[in-house]
Amino acid sequence: MAGHVRCTALLDACVLYPLAIADALMSVAAAGSFSARWTTYIESEWVSALERARPELVGRLDFRRECMREACQDWEVPKAAWEPLVASLVLPDPDDRHVLAAAIAGHADYIVTLNLRDFPQTAVAKFGIEVVDPDTFLLNQWDLEPEVAAAAFQAMRERRRRPEFGPDDFARALQAGGLPLVAQRFREVVMA
User: Fold this and answer.
1) Which of 27, 97, 158, 160 has the most CB within a 10 Å radius?
2) Quick check: is 2 in a domain?
3) How many domains does the chain have?
């Protein structure tokens, strides 16, 4: 995939770590609603965080990582593109500069993160980048392409291994997973 005609979103590690949020973002991106980008550095951050929280997963996340890469084949913002930008950027937490640098280098329209305070508008607006939480971002994608998003979430639900995982169970899982706005929209559209 050489590029994407729709918006591009740089995904922070904190939105790739929680399974419900990561799966939702990958599902909607794979459906063609937006182009999802991240770096190998961001990838190592979410893997390390998940392995620290769940030691039984150490060394067992390769399949998940490969599925994410396959879902979004144009995912990588190469280190050679973003690394030279880091030193020139100013953010409240210097450890987050690589995320903004990757968004700039990856020509992202959005940074999707749970850490909105770490990316103040005064620091990112001059690059034409908007910072948004995943729930709002996914809801906006649903508003822009309702059929695509509804199909992506329905396919996500159908991938659940438990056959008794019905639409209401799925909506509850989305809500518990940090996507209450998306859960409500799913209820309105699929369960109406």
Assistant:
1) 27
2) no
3) 2
pLDDT, tens digit (0-9, with 9 covering 90-100), for 73-106: 999 999 999 999 999 999 999 999 999 999 999 9
- The verdict on 103 and 156 lying in the same domain is no
CATH code at position 129: 3.40.50.1010
Distances 124 to 10, 41, 89, 134 between C-alpha atoms, Å: 13, 20, 10, 17
Query: Domain check: are 156 and 64 in the same one?
Result: no
* Residues 99, 184 within the same domain: no
Co-location of 89 and 151 in the same domain: no
What single letter denotes the amino acid at residue 58?
Answer: V
Q: State the residue range of the domain holding 154.
A: 138-190
CB 77 within 8 A of CB 39: yes
Categorize the per-residue pLDDT at 158 as very low, low, confident or very high, splitting at 50, 70 and 90: confident
pTM (predicted TM-score)? 0.93
Structure tokens at 77: 């913002």
